[in-house]
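Ticket #4471: structure output looks truncated?

Reporter: J.K.
Steps to reproduce: submitted the chain below (302 residues) through the standard prediction queue, then opened the result file.
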Amino acid sequence: MAAKQYVWFDGKFMPFEDAKVHFLTHSLQYGSGIFEGIRAYETGKGPEIFRLDDHISRFLRTAKTYSMNLGYGKGQLRKAIIDLVRKNKLESCYIRPFAFYNDTRIGLDTAGKKISVAIAAIPFGNYFENKDKGISCKVSSWKRINSEILPPHAKGSGNYMNSIIASQEAKEDGADEAIMLTMDGYVAEGPGENIFLVSENKLITPSGESDILMGITRDSLLKIAESTGIATEEREIHREELYTADEVFFSGTAAELTPITKVDGRKIGSGKTGPITKLLSGKFSEIVHGKDEEFFSWLTYL
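Returned output as attached by the reporter:
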């Protein structure tokens, strides 16, 4: 952590170490918080925040889904994020907006409970240690939540207990990460990542009907693929298609593009990062570092 870092908390900046809540806080007890994950990248023109407006819009949609009145609009949150990254003097970082019920009264009822909004911006490297070489995955016995249980299109804190238990299982079994299936047995996503496969030079990813989070990096990659002439398809994916795919990779704000070289002990393709994964990863890196004019609209420079 760089010296003298700050967080934005209920409209004010405070030292990172002073951002504390009571252990009985409702959202700590019941998982009733909501959040976003955003990255800023270093470029030749200074730092930029990737698809900032899209992330804030999703944060506000999540709040609406969970009936949380944050008390801040898109413009206010946008300014707070930009000001925080500047104040922390960060060239590249991970940004975490978070809203929660800041109330110590016991009970599930949220009526009348104070909602706090906080934002952190911290240095952040690769999410997966073996990202460059590729990771191994295990299809989890734990199924992905669906809209009859919790809203998978929203980033609610409690949703991620589903992800945590799947990831724990995979790592206990010697894999780097889990892959989760829908209740109907189709491929959904990783615990915190969307998933893509490449088959016969076509880029395929689960559709929104597969109980996935509609990832912003996922959307970016579909648009990048189309711009480079790669055919794309969003549909339900059978588990066995993972085993016979030429390439498989995760995508996400934290994961960026992470190749998957083994699933359930089976080698994927050549067992190394495939050519389309390399191409998309290279294009994505160029875009976020301000080297591709076609996608400049995705960048918010500080």
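Triage note (M.O.): checked the attachment and the full token line is present. The chain has a mean pLDDT of 96.
Status: closed, working as intended.
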